[in-house]
Each structure stands twice: as structure tokens, then as C-alpha cells.
User: Which sequence fits this backbone?
């Protein structure tokens, strides 16, 4: 498996920050009451993760080992501040909805973890790709969980799209007029995430069971030839 493919598989599925590492659960559980909220925070996190990985990789040989963690945190905090100011300027309504969870990206263990475990040990291009794909994997969990909770909780999808796409954007899809309030409350976030983790584990277990069968079938065919 090439390194680029391995980075993609690790970030999007095998080592997904939200489903496998279970990092960044505070914002993941708190803001995913709608698809747009999950999309907004997911993009912000991905931008910070990609940028911090790239910068950490560029300066990895210039920072002394004794101060590398504080240096990495300063890089991450600077990027989070830039993202926060940009969202306040261009996506103010979404910025107000996400609130404290934008600056809390600084404390997301997935970001400092990738900076230390991968970016500080690899070339800039690979570090950038790792940041993008790890961020995309985390954003995908935010979006799927937000969509699930919005659909069950209020019977819609993409409500509040104007917060990201402008005042005239109305992409709301109403599936039903009824909603189950529990899905929008904190217990609903835990239940939804638990279901997503269980689904991933089921898919992985099924793929593992199929792998030996395929291998033995291939061996039998080779012997017959």
C-alpha cells in the first residue's frame, strides 16, 4: 500500500479521530444538532488540522525537542485565532451558534496528537495530506451525526443553510413534521455516536471475517491450476 493510500485509509476510516480514537468528543457531541453546524465546525477543524500539520512539518528541524509541544500549541492557537476571526467576519451567525467551541479547537487532542505523532516526523506534503484527510474524517462524523440528530429531532435536513451560504440560501429539506426531542438533547448525541461506532465496528468485523474466506478461495484456485 502506497503512503498516500495509507494516509487516506487511516484518516477516513481505520484511525478516524471521531470513531476510533474518540478524540474531540466535546465539540463533536455539543454542536451536532444539525447538518450545517457539523459542517461548519468540521471545515474549521480540518483547516486548522491541515495548516498545523504543514507548519509543524516545516519547522520540525528548527525547534528544540524540549520546547516542541509549547511551540506546536502556539502554532495551533495562532491558526485557530485566524479561523475564529475569519468566521466572525464572514459567517457571523454561524460563529455565534458555534460559540466557545471554535476557540476550543486549540484543545482538540486530535490536532496536537497528529502534530506530534505524524507531522513532526514526516515531510510537509505528507503532513498536509494527513491533516486534510484526518480533518475530513472528523468532519464526516460531525456531518453524519448532525444530520442524524437533525432528522430524528426535528424532521429536517440542511436547516440553517443561510448561515454558511448566504441570506437567500434555503436548502431545508423537510422529511416529516414530527420530531423526537431526545435526539437534540445531550443523551441523543451519545446514543447517535454510539450507533455510529457500533456500525463501523460491525463493518470492520464483517470485512475481517470475509478476508480469510477470500484468501482460502484464492489458494484453492492456485492449487487447482
Assistant:
Amino acid at each position: 500500500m502506497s503512503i498516500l493510500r495509507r494516509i487516506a485509509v487511516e484518516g477516513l476510516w481505520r484511525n478516524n479521530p471521531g470513531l476510533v480514537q474518540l478524540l474531540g468528543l466535546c465539540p463533536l457531541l455539543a454542536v451536532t444538532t444539525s447538518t450545517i453546524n457539523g459542517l461548519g465546525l468540521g471545515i474549521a477543524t480540518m483547516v486548522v488540522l491541515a495548516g498545523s500539520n504543514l507548519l509543524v512539518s516545516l519547522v520540525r528541524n528548527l525547534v528544540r525537542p524540549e520546547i516542541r509541544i509549547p511551540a506546536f500549541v502556539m502554532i495551533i492557537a495562532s491558526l485557530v485565532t485566524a479561523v475564529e476571526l475569519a468566521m466572525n467576519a464572514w459567517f457571523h451567525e454561524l460563529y455565534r451558534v458555534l460559540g466557545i467551541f471554535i476557540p476550543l479547537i486549540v484543545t482538540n487532542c486530535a490536532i496536537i496528537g497528529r502534530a506530534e505523532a505524524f507531522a513532526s516526523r514526516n515531510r510537509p506534503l505528507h503532513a498536509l495530506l494527513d491533516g486534510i484527510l484526518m480533518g475530513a474524517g472528523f468532519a464526516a462524523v460531525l456531518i453524519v451525526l448532525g444530520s442524524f440528530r437533525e432528522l430524528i429531532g426535528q424532521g429536517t435536513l440542511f436547516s440553517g443553510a443561510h448561515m454558511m451560504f448566504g441570506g437567500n440560501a434555503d436548502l431545508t429539506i423537510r422529511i416529516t413534521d414530527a420530531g423526537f426531542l431526545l435526539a437534540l438533547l445531550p443523551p441523543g448525541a451519545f446514543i447517535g455516536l454510539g450507533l455510529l461506532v457500533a456500525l463501523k465496528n460491525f463493518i470492520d468485523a464483517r470485512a475481517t471475517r470475509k478476508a480469510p474466506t477470500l484468501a482460502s478461495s484464492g489458494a484453492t484456485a492456485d492449487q487447482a491450476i
Summary: The chain has nine helices and two strands.
